[in-house]
Amino acid sequence: MADSAAAPPKPSSSVKLVLLGEAAVGKSSLVLRFVNNDFQENKEPTIGAAFLTQKSHLPHRTIKFEIWDTAGQERFASLAPMYYRNAQSALVVYDLTKPTSLVKAKHWVAELQRQANPGIVIALVGNKLDLTDENAAASGGASTSEGSDAEGAETPETSGDARKISTKEGRAYAEEEGLLFFETSAKTGVNVQEVFTAIANAIPETQMKGAKGPGAAGAGAGQTALGSERVNLNQRAEGAKEGCAC
Amino acid sequence: MGHDGEESLATSEGEEELANDRRTSPPRDRDDESTIRGVKEEGAGASPKEESSTISQARSNSPETEQEYRPPLPPRPSNFGLLREGSYSPGSSLQRSKNTSRPHLQSTATTALSRTDIHTQSYQDGSRETFAASAQTTPPSKAIAAFGSIKRIKGFSGSEGGDSGSVRSYAPTLETGGDVESLLGEVLGASQESPAWRLHSTQNEAPDPFDSITYEDDETTVDFYREFDEISAVAADGENEEQLLNQWKSKRKHFLILSSAGKPIYNRHGDDNLISGYIGIIQTIISFYEGAHNQLKGFTAAGARFVVMSQGPLYLVAISKLGENDPQLRVQLEALYMQILSTLTLPNLTHMFSNRPSTDLRRPLQGTEPLLSALADTFTRGSPPTLLSALECLTIRKSHRQVINDTLLQTRCETLLYGLIVASGRLVSVVRPRKHSLHPSDLQLIFNMLFEARGVKAGGGENWIPLCLPGFNKNGYLYMYVSFISAYESIGEEEHERVNESGKPDDIAILLISANKESFYDLRKMRDALVDELEANGSMAIVRSAVRRGRPTATDIVPGTVLRHFLYKSRANVQFTMPSYEPSFTTLLARRRLLSLYHALHASVHAKNAHLKVHHCISRESISLAWVTPLFELYCVAGPQASRNALAQSANKVIQWVRKEEERVFIIGGAVSLNSLDRCTIYKKLTPPAARYSEQI
Ligand SMILES: Nc1nc2c(ncn2[C@@H]2O[C@H](COP(=O)(O)OP(=O)(O)OP(=O)(O)O)[C@@H](O)[C@H]2O)c(=O)[nH]1
Ligand SMILES: [Mg+2]
């Protein structure tokens, strides 16, 4: 909704994207960075899931992301199929400083490969790069100057290297499974835009849903564009069998 | 009678004088409350027999005609003359200077009248016990000093303290109260005087205490401002432990939740390592009584009231030094328990513990802590909706609300169960199925999640939230679509930023609840249609401007009133209304003190044996009034300089105002045609509540 200024008539299409990963790895923070270019030091856990949209202007077209930011907590896991069922892309996020989060990420990748759209584009994302040694070098150029960045500077972790999962390990797994791979920091902004752009580029144009009426600003935004998809989704939804919500 | 038939508060010179007498009564009986507050009190247990000579007799004889009741001719003209004078022309009684002292007034007929109905007392049973222990530890000099200061302020000479019939010896809740006290006295650090006293008495020299709170910067005040500060983690070497424990002990309010096996589940302050010892002690005490088939309900130690609630496999404990009484604390614990059910559902909770009694509930509850803490902090700051078990509505014209109701109905989709529009924590409109009510306790959880906890709103998107609404059904989940609309859309971005910074939760939320977890897109479509329509028919602009306008101040409502603040609860509607906290109660502390006063008033009129209809409380800081009828509860507060007559007069004005504005300040159905609808009906005429805390909408 932020980009209400209508772009010149570039072809525009929408991409459904879902974020999955262990609790507190930074899924919501990545979305917040992508959508609002902002960061919050103590972000509260997501309850259920949040739905956001964001336009991304590529050289030859405009992509409208429809993003499902899911909660990482176990008790919401059974709801996940509802969010990835129709997704064309997924960000599977882990925390570079937390080994269990990569294990969890691998589970999600396996589940997506088994149950999501066959053509789904998956990006494996190791987040919290700012807590590792590469932080200084990497964030220098890409960092967007924000008030929140300055505040974060005092966190004790920034001094040492808290990395627990090497780049090599993450990349090797991603290549094995045919995933896009990034290491990011939602805090500094490093590589965040890049992940989304890479996803947009990786989705074949034929798979994208055309959105003729670019949403006008305000409340009614996206209504027409979404209408057709909703019908689509509901058809599939009715056929699906789900476990309990817990 | 030339009376307009409205129920009005009778006041009289005699009462006024009596009040003055009480203010000046010497501390002959160092009763516990007197020590705390410096309020001279009269027995809560005023014998029911005495009630027969009061105005409340007339009222309570025919409660069903409450609203239009005209007092019958009195049996004792002399008394009634006073009453009537008060209700006819209350101003006349103001002519007498309130400094007049009449030491022997209590022997007159007027005294008899007042004693029975208009009580000047501050606390009811629960809190009485709360303070009893602290009174025991209070050095006599302190108590005397307190009264000394009252005298100084009022410039009265002492009169007889004849109304000391209420002095009660402290009866401990527990047979072994003494032991427990010493045990926990150590735990909590036996402070030598009640912190509640200190919290309430930082202003004893100021003529207008509520006003000057902002300038007050003594230890106590600062203390309360630190109430919500985080306690950091215990260092590896344990070096900072003592300092952290002191910090922990300085908190005025604690909530602990543990499993009956003693596993910590939630605590508001400090991490597990820091307080594990205390958790162990509490668990031991509770299970000791459980073992003896004698459930522990509460006890007092070191100026703190401990209230224990056992809910299936859980123990919930509230520790308060804020002077709340047991029923009030229980309501708070109940809310925390409801939040846990809301996360897990009852079958899940029982299942986990029946499978494994040693279950660590922290894991399944992960992510619920911010919601529990938001609730806890709301209670610590003081919360009128929780105190009154009622909710507040956004004030708009009846016809405007009608349009919004209709729009909700027109746009509602098949899967919708409940649809709500909420603006800055106040209800604007509701659609619900005919057969299903909405519990205030459920709404409290939802409002807490959306307006107190930051998580959902900070996300900035639309939300799809599975949650159990225990009041609706403890056994399963519902799914809630939430989207926020700024109330400041029409104002420039910049100003919006500014307003947000001040931390006001001034957003408008559209909440659409369904039992179908796949219905997100349906509800989203409904939301779009609803908002489009509300924008088109001008309703959104009306709601926005009502939100921006905020609550009127007390003087907006009753011009020239002595009232600083009031709470009016419509019992039939399970709703309440109140003026803005501005200008007198803007600070955290001032607001807490106001709420403490409301808690005390509420306690006195809700005591089990209370026959009170009207209850006055006069202290050095304020003069206040509680007035309860089957239709409403009114609590009002004026500055200490105000006369009782002026207060009563204002109370009557508030009643008149509510009567006039009733269909704006409350949601009262009836206008929407329900004939064509089979599944949903607009939040219509609400069922009058049977019991106090099981009220439904
Ligand atoms: N240092 C650092 N902290 C981060 C980064 N990203 C997120 N965080 C912090 O990690 C915590 C969790 O972030 P969230 O974005 O809420 O994590 P999440 O994956 O959405 O968590 P759930 O919603 O519970 O699944 C927050 O306190 C963030 O401030 C990052 O790149 N660097
Ligand atoms: Mg999140």
Automatic annotation (TrEMBL), chain A:
Alphabetized, the UniProt keywords read: Nucleotide-binding
Entry-linked Pfam families: Ras
Compositionally biased residues, Low complexity: 136-147
Instruction: Output the CDD domains linked to this UniProt entry.
Output: Rab5_related
PROSITE patterns documented for this protein = RAB (PS51419), RAS (PS51421), RHO (PS51420)
GO MF terms, alphabetically ordered: GTP binding; GTPase activity
Source taxon at top rank: Eukaryota
Record region (Disordered): 136-166
Q: Which NCBIfam families match?
A: small_GTP (TIGR00231)
Name of the protein in question: Uncharacterized protein
* Native organism: Imshaugia aleurites
From TrEMBL, chain B:
Q: Which residues form the FUZ/MON1/HPS1 second Longin domain?
A: 415-530
- Give one GO biological process term: vesicle-mediated transport
Q: Where is the composition biased (Polar residues)?
A: 53-64, 89-117
Q: Where in the sequence does UniProt note compositional bias of the Basic and acidic residues kind?
A: 19-52
Signal sequence range: none
Quick one: where's region Disordered?
A: 1-117
Main localisation, per the record? membrane
Pfam entry (one): Fuz_longin_2
Q: Tell me the InterPro entries matching this sequence.
A: FUZ/MON1/HPS1_longin_1, FUZ/MON1/HPS1_longin_2, FUZ/MON1/HPS1_longin_3, Mon1
Query: Which keywords appear in this protein's UniProt record, sorted alphabetically?
Result: Autophagy, Endosome, Membrane, Protein transport, Transport, Vacuole
Location within or outside the cell = Endosome, Multivesicular body membrane; Prevacuolar compartment membrane; Vacuole membrane
Residues annotated as domain FUZ/MON1/HPS1 third Longin: 563-662
* Lipid metabolism in keyword set: no
**Membrane topology qualifier:** Peripheral membrane protein
Query: Domain named FUZ/MON1/HPS1 first Longin: which ranges?
Result: 253-375
GO annotations of cellular component type? fungal-type vacuole membrane; Mon1-Ccz1 complex; multivesicular body membrane
Q: What this chain does, per the record?
A: In complex with CCZ1, is required for multiple vacuole delivery pathways including the cytoplasm to vacuole transport (Cvt), autophagy, pexophagy and endocytosis. The MON1-CCZ1 complex acts at the fusion of vesicles with the vacuole, through its regulation of the SNARE complex during the coordinated priming and docking stages of fusion, and particularly at the stage of tethering/docking.
Family to which the UniProt record says this protein belongs? Belongs to the MON1/SAND family.
Please state what the protein is called. Vacuolar fusion protein MON1
